[in-house]
Amino acid sequence: GERCLPPEYERCMLALSPRGSSSMELREFDFRTGDFVAGGFRTAANRAFVAWLNRDTLLIAHSLEGSPALPSNFPAVARLWKRGTPLAAAKAVYRAPENASFMLPAALGSGKDRRGLLPVALSYTSIELKLVEQDGTVSDILLPSDIKYQGPAVLAYPYVVVQRGKDAMIGGTAYPAEAIIAYDIRKETKPDRRIGLVHRPADGAFVTDGTSGFGAVRSGIAFIENIALRRSLVLARPGRGGWTNETLEQAEPGVRLSIASTDRVSDDILVSREGFLESETQRVPAADQRHRV
Q1: DSSP structure string for 139-180
Q2: 89 pLDDT exceeds 90?
């Protein structure tokens, strides 16, 4: 996820748990060589969250060096940490409000287009979204904050995807509760064309929230929709005429269908199925090849 640098995903910040502690030590690892990077990024054990902006820059929120914390004990300040400099010298780029619950750095895109994202949770139903440039400039994503919490941000460059918590008017358009909408972060996109409707659940349907219900792939967004206890895996793709939805797989009532993992550089989706009379299985249903075990 955020702890590995796309598109190669060879450099990662491994999270190590000394003696099983909940405090994590982060160390830069090179999967190409199979070694920790000599002189690379490394933190002492603490409560830290990190996302790569480029090969030499991390967006990090940590609780070391006297960096302030929120009442929840989550880090309160997001910083830019440059390669070859001490963590204490990392530049503060954003401080969360004192009433915030947590802030979890993320990122989307690759190369010069990669941007950081700061979801700042004032509560589980009020989340502000901030964009962070590679130079540390911070700007607002202009969406109402009353969106549903979905665990890690749903990021499919160039879109940040959220689900409405309640009915709202955005830019003169009505979006009902539970609707999934996408925000285009590209600088060249005109302000009145940034927001698009990804999916509007039918009456009696809802989209499963949480980390098992959403995921980003190369061509769009995957999610689980529940209608009359029947779960469906849906892939939504953007196009010139808006977003289109395709059902990839359905499960009978009583079978739990969930997204175990997705890959942002392909359209692979690892899906889990489990029911009262069906043992758990995992497989990759591909949009163009149907089912691949």
Answers
A1: EE--S-S-B---SS-EEETTEEEEEBSS-EEETTEEE-TT-E
A2: yes
